[in-house]
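Researcher: Next entry in the queue.
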Amino acid sequence: MALKITVIGTGYLGATHAAAMAEMGFEVLGLDVVPEKIELLASGRVPMYEPGLEELLARHVAGIEGSTGRLRFTTSWEEVGAFGDVHFVCVNTPQKHGEYGCDMSYVDAAFASLAGVARPGSLAVGKSTVPVGSAERLAAVLPEGVELAWNPEFLREGFAVQDTLRPDRIVVGVPGDDGGRAEKLLREVYAVPVAEGSPFVVTDFPTAELVKTAANSFLATKISFINAMAEICEAAGGDVAKLAEAIGHDERIGNKFLRAGVGFGGGCLPKDIRAFMARAGELGVDQALTFLREIDSINMRRRGQMVEMARQALGGDSFLGRRVAVLGATFKPDSDDVRDSPALNVAGQIHLQGGQVTVYDPKGMENARKVFPTLGYADSALEAVRGADVVLHLTEWREFRELDPAELAAVASSPVVLDGRNALDGERWRAAGWTYRAMGRPRA
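Model: Structure for this entry, 444 residues:
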């Protein structure tokens, strides 16, 4: 009999995972404690922007004309327990308020509820990013006959559907010396991507938990490294883009994540590296990760440096009464996520210092207004730039790369653009009459 899968938590991770499991041919039941979210998903819509996800839902959500009907949603734990053979826990693990550590309250609540309904012989699978040691503790919460595996997620916002259907690796942490039934069931769940070449890596619990935080810490380190080089280039008159190109040809380094700019944000990298540091301290090995404090510091410093670049572009004086256009609100393109967004942070800092800031983003406007309701918002890049004394490019949307600089120059008060992502074609903007300046490239 084919496995039946439940997905507990239908946020960004859970909604994508549920739709992908249905695409792989499984009967899937998604659960959330927020009825409004369930109603939205049951109609084939999602509470966030993720390319391809609504189309995937439309192919499988029960009740939608032409769908397979393999995907349903509920708020009932009892229904989840009766239905599922494999239960994926995909709830959020935010940073604790006022602390570096990870807030495990949602994960703990999900496992406590699942423990009360899961059938003997079923498998619970954690996908949330948790501090190392959590899986062993949570395994003790589950009743006899219900096994636990840990299967960390590696989704990139904007590519989540692709990353779930065709993952670059599948990591499975299982109890004991061999995988036993847990490994067997997860090999069945992931049979399609494994057959298509995705590596299937079996580890113990601690290693599986560490893989995600180690991966994010490495990526954050690489980003902050090139941004530190940008600071040196600013002082020495170098060109960080050419520097990155040159070192990227070294196959030991590679060219990915070497674009200097205003830094990283979002709901994963910042809070994950902080939680990793906090957990290392609890384990008595905090010195092993002290370098992550500097990584975090470099990243946060970039935002202030962008604000100072804008001030200098305006003559080095106050922002009072000056009009500043900000292109971008989300922390990255192809997403509507504004959590810990460098773009919004910079916009907010300038606004608090008296600047008249107008923001435009292709997908993040609604979420940005919730976070910074006092900022100005425009319906297009052209309207944001109208009357601006300086333009800040802070999220590398394709739409911004394809803008007509001449059209924008015609409406700007002063055609000065600061490229906080090193993604615009500087020569093209200069040819249209703009003064172009990019981070880490004082002479470019």
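Model: The CA atoms of residues 140 and 278 lie 23 Å apart.
Researcher: Noted, moving on.
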